[in-house]
Design goal:
alpha+beta; 6-stranded antiparallel β-sheet; 4-stranded antiparallel β-sheet; 25% helix
Length: 336
């Protein structure tokens, strides 16, 4: 198995457009996936070489169940299915997803073309269960009117927060990506005063400045998604969120996509948002935003994508897969 710390295009800058494609792979489709992975780079080049100014990239993630069905040998140490979070009032569901594509470019049409080529290549082996076309909205704002991604790590800090290293050397250069689709109650949100909206988010709306600690409520979004270890170390993730919407369907939302070297970090954020810390002190944004999907994937390094692990043998396939639900890390209402 190759070991190469060169990641996929995870650390690429935010773009104007994106396609988020979630697929399930049926039994018998595993080999089609193995055949596709080494050819993804060529498909990106076939579209992007003709459009050098578009900055076309594609990041591919693989879910735990598909990994177990497709590859022999060890799996990435922290890979498991998305764990739903259920609080007294709010719920983050776990929804199907085996293969995930995060396709980015300046304009939408190169993203669309690349996603189409991948989908055509997989044929009957895969089913698209969710497709979202994201767009840049004004000055990096979401549809709630606030700038999204302000506190993303940069440079070496981004690499440290996102990329797997010596803790799992066989999968160095990879990362984990969590995805959720949130639908917003825009009429309800816009019916709130600007001050109420700022207190819910934890930032000023106009200039994007974070509220001071004396003003920022402990159940604001910013406060609950700031993860600090017992030793004072702040744990970060890289967010590539984008707005999406449909005028005809009356759907307006944010596609949350968070990359992290350890999925425990975004999982802790979700527990704090949906259950509360202390319990019951949930994220004020959830009064107006509803999570309707939830998935977790491992994103292999570029070298591992080009040369995937061996196919799962018949003997290996006959063995039960690891019990994802019993990893010894406690209940979702608790902490690790």
């Amino acid at each position: 198995m190759p070991v190469d710390p060169q990641p996929q295009a995870v650390l690429s800058p935010l773009t104007e457009s994106a396609v988020f494609l979630t697929m399930t792979v049926g039994d018998g489709g595993e080999q089609a996936v193995r055949d596709l992975l080494p050819d993804l780079g060529g498909l990106v080049r076939s579209v992007g070489f003709r459009l050098p100014d578009e900055g076309l990239t594609c990041v591919t993630g693989i879910g735990a169940d598909l990994w177990d069905r497709t590859f022999d040998g060890p799996r990435p140490a922290a890979l498991h299915p998305f764990r739903e979070v259920t609080g007294a009032r709010h719920h983050a569901p776990s929804t199907p997803g085996d293969l995930f594509l995060h396709v980015r470019a300046v304009r939408l049409f190169p993203c669309f073309e690349l996603a189409r080529l991948v989908r055509t290549r997989l044929g009957d082996a895969a089913v698209v269960v969710d497709e979202v076309h994201g767009f840049r909205y004004f000055d990096r704002r979401d549809l709630l009117g606030f700038v999204d991604g302000t506190e993303n790590p940069t440079g070496d800090g981004a690499s440290a927060a996102v990329l797997v290293g010596g803790e799992d050397p066989a999968f160095a250069g990879g990362t984990y990506v969590m995805t959720q689709k949130y639908l917003h109650d825009l009429p309800g949100w816009q019916g709130q005063s600007v001050e109420a909206r700022e207190l819910a988010v934890g930032r000023r709306m106009l200039d994007d400045v974070e509220l001071d600690d004396a003003t920022k409520p402990p159940d604001s979004h910013v406060a609950l998604t700031t993860i600090v270890d017992d030793d004072g170390t702040e744990r970060e993730i890289l967010r590539d969120n984008m707005p999406f919407g449909s005028i005809a369907d009356g759907e307006y939302g944010t596609y949350f996509i968070g990359y992290a070297a350890d999925p425990d970090v975004p999982e802790r954020m979700l527990r704090r948002m949906f259950v509360g810390e202390p319990e019951g002190s949930t994220d004020r944004l959830l009064e107006f935003s509803t999570a309707v999907t939830g998935s977790l994937y491992f994103v292999p390094s570029a070298a591992l994508l080009d040369d995937p692990p061996p196919a799962r043998t018949a003997a290996e396939a006959a063995r039960p897969a690891p019990a994802h639900g019993d990893l010894g890390i406690g209940d979702l209402r608790g902490t690790r």
